[in-house]
Design goal:
Elements: E1 2-4, H1 16-40, H2 51-61, H3 69-89, H4 97-108, E2 110-112, H5 118-131, H6 136-152, H7 171-182, E3 186-190, H8 198-201, E4 202-203, E5 211-212, H9 214-222, E6 228-232, E7 239-241, E8 247-249, H10 250-258, H11 260-263, E9 266-267, E10 274-275
Parallel strand pairs: 3-6
Antiparallel strand pairs: 1-2, 4-5, 7-8, 9-10
């Protein structure tokens, strides 16, 4: 199992409560040692007291160290400033704390499912072919891609496949079964519903229906960076033009994820940050 960061930004530790606790602990420790130094002294009569004795005396005196209301006010103020600066440094200052926490797995690392061995690949493909032998051309393409990944030790990533055939032959069922055999999550998008690609890219912030796209939702839900995206009825996808002349088409939305140069730093309209979506199939 491999881990990879999908957002290349510093992890903003914006838990103000945790920062407050650390600052409080630091100040108490500082004052405890200062009190012990004043109690022991630093003249010739206290030279025989070593460092261990100093720490012991400091611990014994710690009960007498208290923080005033003014101290706690200053600590809270400093913690707030530190959290704010870290948020700005990450480039995610436009997001709420809850949204940043939601994206945090993408900054620390998500799993990339990889084929176990070449033999495992052969068994998976054989099982798929045995269940749906009439899908042999598509199964063969998947077999080549999986063996390549297994040989090179790479995560599972299949090339874009366009399945064309009569209705009811099991194109979508084949794709679902493939994800089950490979143990990778999948999301299904019906291109005939809505049809302008918002289900792929998401809806931009500022709209009442703003939300991330389905592929990104799948990654966030399962914390797996290489899910399988199944697009149904792509031939029925549409395009729409707004009153201001802006054009939205399903093909353009999908192209940003299919093209390697753009998918590696894909601009999410909802979170307004660049995310590596190049691992999805």
């Amino acid at each position: 199992m491999k881990l990879t960061k999908l957002i290349h930004a510093p992890d903003p530790e914006i838990n103000q409560s945790a920062i407050t606790v650390r600052l409080t602990k630091f100040l108490l420790e500082l004052r405890k040692k200062k009190l012990a130094k004043e109690f022991i002294g630093d003249d010739e009569h206290s030279v025989h007291l070593g460092l261990e004795n100093f720490d012991r005396v400091a611990d014994e005196l710690s009960a007498g160290v208290e923080l005033s209301w003014e101290d706690r006010k200053r600590i809270n103020s400093c913690a707030g400033k530190i959290a704010g600066r870290r948020k700005e440094a990450s480039g995610l200052a436009h997001l709420t704390t809850q949204e940043i926490q939601r994206l945090k797995p993408l900054m620390t690392g998500v799993r990339l499912v990889a084929p176990e061995t070449v033999h495992w690949v052969d068994e998976v493909v054989s099982a798929l072919h045995e269940e749906m032998p009439w899908m042999a051309p598509a199964t063969q393409e998947v077999w080549y891609a999986l063996r390549y990944s297994a040989t090179n030790g790479d995560p599972i990533r299949l090339p874009p496949l366009l399945l064309s055939g009569s209705p009811g032959i099991g194109k979508s069922v084949w794709a679902r079964r493939l994800s089950e055999l490979l143990h990778i999550p999948r999301c299904e998008i019906d291109a005939s519903i809505g049809g302008v690609g918002f289900s792929v890219t998401g809806v931009e912030r500022g709209w009442s229906s703003a939300q991330p796209g389905r592929p990104l939702e799948t990654i966030l839900q399962h914390q797996v960076g290489n899910p399988l995206v199944v697009v149904d009825e792509i031939c029925k996808s549409q395009s729409a033009t707004t009153e201001k002349g802006a054009n939205h088409s399903f093909a353009d939305s999908l192209l940003n994820l299919l093209e390697p140069a753009t998918s590696v730093a894909w601009a999410c309209p909802f979170f307004r940050t660049r995310i590596d979506m190049s691992h999805i199939s």
